[in-house]
Amino acid sequence: MALNVHNFPPTIIPPHAEALRQEVKAFIAEHAGHIPPHRRARTWSGFDADFSRAMAARGWVGVTVPREYGGPGLDPFSRFVLVEELLAYGAPVAAHWIGDRQSAPLILHYGTEEQRRFFLPRICRGELFFCIGMSEPNSGSDLASVRTRAERVEGGWRLNGQKIWTTYAHKAHYMIALVRTSGTPQDRHAGLSQFLVDLSLPGVTVRPIALGTGDADFNEVFFDNVLLPEDALVGTEGNGWAQVNAELAFERSGPERLYSSLVLLDLWASLLGENASPEDAARLGRLTARLAPLREMSVAITGLLAAGQSPLTEAALFKDLGTEFEQTIPSEIADAVAAAPDRTPDPELLRTLAYLMQLNHVFSLRGGTREILRGMIAKSLGLR
Length: 384
Hints:
By secondary structure, this protein is an alpha+beta fold. The protein folds into three domains: about 5-130, CATH 1.10.540.10; about 130-240, CATH 2.40.110.10; about 240-380, CATH 1.20.140.10. It is built from 13 helices and eight strands. The protein has helices at about 15-20, 20-30, 35-40, 50-55, 75-90, 95-110, 115-125, 240-255, 260-270, 280-305, 310-340, 345-360, 370-380, and strands spanning about 130-135, 150-155, 155-165, 175-180, 190-200, 205-210, 220-230, 235. The protein starts with 14 loop residues before the first helix and ends with a helix.
């Protein structure tokens, strides 16, 4: 089906979700108000287990998980408001982020009743943190070419292979890994399955990858004859490709694809104040004008998710446009600073800007590269 404007229907966040906003703001001020902007610029890559557990105590982790599985049973709009406020401020949410955004919905939809009963309450209590096992060396965003393999053995599965660019694998308890259970990489989508991997098992090795920023959020993860129990399989064997695409709709559609540089933009705007030069005011206006419709796209996709749809192409389009925008913000502000050499820049602005200038190239890699996303969009439009 061709992509058209009706895939992004005008959507308004309902009053019950908006009512949550002030409560979230107060929580952030109490628990993260002391964090300076250059630290808040890490947004959803900032890991703080205590902060995540404080959120869990308020019922704000696994917010869409039904009450029968330990969650508050809120709708996607409530989660949007919660996430938007957390990311706009730059709260350190990485500890629970993957479990809340992807792992819990995946287990809820595809997991067995036993898996739901075991994992979902623990995610919602902030007891289990998750990471994603998708990318592999020499595969990039071409997930269908994965080589990591799980073979049936007596009592379960034997896992061998490697994952890379796995965020916070060194601090997570579990990984949901996309692996091959039959066929070869040439079979592409056929023969792929998803597994719950306890990262404390013998044979699992995690090696951090140091970034130029000094952070080590990413990791390589090696599996050497790791024995998984029979019930480690999520969903149906061989259905991993369909499952992971449903998962990626959650990963690509949220405001995190817009707000990775918002702390910097807010700081710069506040420093400009009412004395902004015409050039700076015009630059700020252009950035704000781009942000507003992109946010509306994310709200529209949230509405589609709330209606039970799986907006894969819409999420890919939004993610491509959103990450391009959030990459633009540090470059634009760097140009603004350089254009006024007679003014002494604010030190905190420079610290925040320096961090994001080193990191912003990553924004279009995580969650699927631009080339892969545009290929998906082109296919939806019938262009390939």
